[in-house]
Amino acid sequence: MDRPESEGTVMSLLSRSTFRVSPRGVITSLALTLIALVILWPELFIVEDPNLINVAGRFQTPSFEHLFGTDDAGRDIFSRVVLGARFSVGNAILVVLSAAAIGTIIGAVGGWLGGWVDRLLSKSTDVFLAFPYLVLAMAISAAAGRNLTSAVVALIIVWWPSYARMVRTIVRTQKSELFVKAARTLGASGPQIIWWHVIPQATQQLAARMTLDVGYVLVALTGLSFLGLGAQAPSPEWGLMIASAKAYALVAWWYPFFPGLVIVGVVAGSVWLGEGISRDKSPSRRAAKRSRRTNVEVEHADSKESSA
Amino acid sequence: MSDLILEVSDLEVHYDGVAKPTVEGVNFALRRGSCIAFVGETGSGKTTSVLAATRLVERATIRAGRLAFEGNDLLSMGGKELREFRRRRIGMVFQDPTASWNPTRRISAQLLDTTPKRERVDMLDKLISLCERVGITNAPSKVNAYPFELSGGQLQRLMIAGALLHDPVVLVADEPTSALDASVQKDLLALLDELRRERDLGVLLVSHDLGVVARMAHEVLVMNTGKVVEQGTVRQVVNAPTHPYSRSLLASSLGMTAPRKARLTSGPAWSAQDPATTGGGAA
Q1: What are the tens digits of pLDDT across the range B7-22?
Q2: Which domain holds residue A222?
């Protein structure tokens, strides 16, 4: 037995990777790369200074020069949407990452330790969950000052409890599994059990949930900006753009239409991707895939035998 | 008799949040090469007693007059010392072979995780030879398989191989065969018995099958509602049970040897709490 350990590791990594080569995988990778580029290097896509005011060229219909047309100040809407991705999608991702981090820590600590610590943490989680989240977010951001930072903080505050509850449930179920007890008899410590038996289970569900939530948080964040509680003019944040466009919706349909279309696109994409991950990652589906593969091998072996 | 491994006296286990102790007044002494069996119905505290005696119970308070493993006090052990004790001195086989493995990880990874990296290659070789010993054919590929690719009997054999990996002195078998079919049961029990003799293991066997116990054990503790109602050698308990509960249990036993003679009764004729009926002839 001189089987190199690296082989097993690479194989298991390949068979576990989120994105196998499939149509969904290819589209997903392209879309994610595009979004990352738009957020990190908007300069690559911007055709005109997004804040360049040109009163003479206001309300131009979409054309090759101005793909999404121009707004009430003659600014290029396409360039503004591109730059706005950083504010809207970038901040939505920031909210999801922070909320997931806080929620995971609180949920994991409560679920793992149990007892009064767990009771205290889950009761405080419940208090947050009891509020309608958008109302709470509006209250917090209105109280903390009307700007994008306070909107982001408000959304983190209302978003972590759902993660805490989810992670707590995962930790508790995993902890009571017989194989965790078996690992203990083999001398595993608490951190080792978390690392081997809890985190892999949690990451699968977390990945799906976080991807879905990018869309939902985006809606909430642009909603806050739309109401005037988030980004303030002249920021090209998408919700704010729609808010300033609503007065001109009848004279310049493209002004609210394109930012709205982009929001719908990103939300739909995140939901589609999130559902894909959760379906692909569910253990039963993985087992089914594997057994299908095994069956093919068996059939193959059978046909070999019968032909021999 | 050979040397003493595990001494337990006056063991009492309180689960957190439960008013009454789940187990009280358990006494036994396990020697190398011997097998002590715990019998009783579901919920009688047999598993709890065994797990508490090896410090594997969680969210519970364990009290004991004496709980010593090879002369060391188990109750004062903690942290790393306790983990090393579990890893090196105790092997454990659980009831449900499919639930005792994490379905998403390879068998070898689960068994060798706790071994330091530099020993892992040697341990893998040792695991494969142990697998061959416990009757796994084509061991190298089985060891690298995922649990769902194997049958219950194979998983349980792998569990036994894993339990023996660090050459323990005590093997705890918690109803090791109750989830398996009759022919596999028979083979596995024979295997456990062979291994006990071969390696001079002390075995703590939990079972509700008196047929199994009669074949495997030297000493029997009959438990009911958290108390030991009868304790003695297999011959005493099986041939001449004194407590009415043991008698009833014995008569109702399906076993692998004889047809069931009667249903288990727990009527008002006797009570485990009432010492007056212990040894009395109400049945």
Answers
A1: 888 888 888 878 888 8
A2: 41-307
